[in-house]
Amino acid sequence: MAKEFMGEDFLLDSEPARKIYSAAKEMPIFDWHCHLSPKEIYENENPGDISSLWLGGDHYKWRAMRSCGVSEKYVTGDASGEEKFLAFASCMPYLAGNPMYHWCHLELRRYFGIDDILRPESAAKIRDKANSLIENGGFTPRELITKSNVTHLCTTDDPADSLEYHALLREDDSFACKVLPAFRPDKALAADSPAFAPWLADMEKTAGREIKSFSALCSVLADRVDYFEKAGCRASDHAFAYVPYEECSEAELERIFADARSGSAISPLDADRYKTALLRFLASIYAEKGWGMELHIGPIRNNNTRIFRSVGADAGCDSAGDEQIAVKLSRFMDSLDRENALPRTVLFTLNPKDNYVLGTMLGNFQSDEAESKIQFGSAWWFNDSIDGMTEQMKTLANLGAFGKFIGMVTDSRSFLSYPRHEYFRRIMSNFLGSLVEKGLYPYDEAALGEIARDISYNNAIKYFGIK
């Protein structure tokens, strides 16, 4: 007999799983890695319609629409919001097994009270009901965050950012959620990018002084870390196809920096030397401050030149890479550990072939500075599916301390993305329940409930030192 679609027991295959989920489901959310806009949170405008709220900037939906043969006009082009929504709805029946199928229906149910299945025949009715609700209010960024029971969230912010909207939000006592910055110096590390010299000019404006040397850049970035910390920052964030590790002298670093500052081409070897030195410098500062350092490893970005030229970055044309990552990641972490300068570190992989690489790397560098100081980050981006999350959890459970896992992040630009935490909690509860069902863990409801609550919220609060 078929189970009810997304019924009360959705993703919960056993009585232990259901009991565990009942302990986790009401926990608040700490979204410690997202791409929400602090400006939009501060300005707090009600969206115009379901299309702008649901489809604008959502590259997951864009990829699905392209896979169904939808013209770019209806994806990122100049079609009306109504046309784009109907185009997306026409794709939904074909997305069987795609986590987005579940996310979309969770969002419709949790925020709009709409239980109908989204498909071409129901699209107009769903659109009209959603738009009517939006028109009546209650869908501003702050209202959606509050409805989602989010106590803290960390945005993603460049060192050159003024953090003005974070400051304004801190002064607003009417909004309970703490909106914290996260330090994302990817542009500072990208000496081999044509955008490096323009970014450096922006950084000079923010810093109020010239940056003519690598040592000067380090000094400015150290000051920015202090500035971010005063704004409540507790995490840094870095994205790499692979974590580099190439040593070089100070003289070589200054030569590489001078070339990059002038706009000259940088060789791959010199780029890795520069990134290694700067990342090690930054990591040592994070360690001093007790920050968490997130390393997102594995994406190949902007693969489609045609779409990049017409739409820009983050348009749904990124994918998993297959670089070898183990040796250089180990050398990088060991170089810091030898100097007692390795911060709390969260390792994410976009390629599940590297699950065991990261899972085994954790145990090399643990210490009593923090419980599970080196974390295996939750199944990320293309992996935040039922299979992807389950495999990440299995790997962590096999190789580490699953009960100290710091759990889920949305990694999203959408204010409707928070039901992904429910999705995660159901999958996590089902995984724990399966251990009980197989006789691999005792059926101790109190202990299992504590693990579920900790993974859902408490562990991350403690790990990042949130007060």
Account of the protein in words:
With 467 residues, the protein is an alpha/beta fold. It has helices at 15-24, 38-43, 50-54, 59-67, 81-91, 99-112, 120-135, 141-147, 164-170, 186-189, 196-207, 214-230, 250-262, 268-289, 305-310, 326-337, 355-362, 386-399, 419-437, 445-463; strands spanning 29-31, 150-154, 178-180, 235-240, 292-297, 299-300, 319-320, 344-349, 374-376. It has a four-stranded parallel sheet, covered by helices on one side. Strands 1-2-3 form a three-stranded parallel sheet. A two-stranded antiparallel sheet has the order 6-7. Helix 1 runs antiparallel to helix 19 (419-437), helix 5 crosses helix 7 and helix 18 (386-399) crosses helix 19. The longest helix has 22 residues, at 268-289. It is globular and about 70 Å long. The termini are far apart. The relative contact order is 0.14. The model has no long low-confidence stretch (mean pLDDT 97).
Give the topology.
Blueprint: H1 15-24, E1 29-31, H2 38-43, H3 50-54, H4 59-67, H5 81-91, H6 99-112, H7 120-135, H8 141-147, E2 150-154, H9 164-170, E3 178-180, H10 186-189, H11 196-207, H12 214-230, E4 235-240, H13 250-262, H14 268-289, E5 292-297, E6 299-300, H15 305-310, E7 319-320, H16 326-337, E8 344-349, H17 355-362, E9 374-376, H18 386-399, H19 419-437, H20 445-463
Parallel strand pairs: 1-2, 2-3, 4-5, 5-8, 8-9
Antiparallel strand pairs: 6-7
Helix pairs in contact: 1-19, 1-20, 5-7, 12-14, 17-18, 18-19
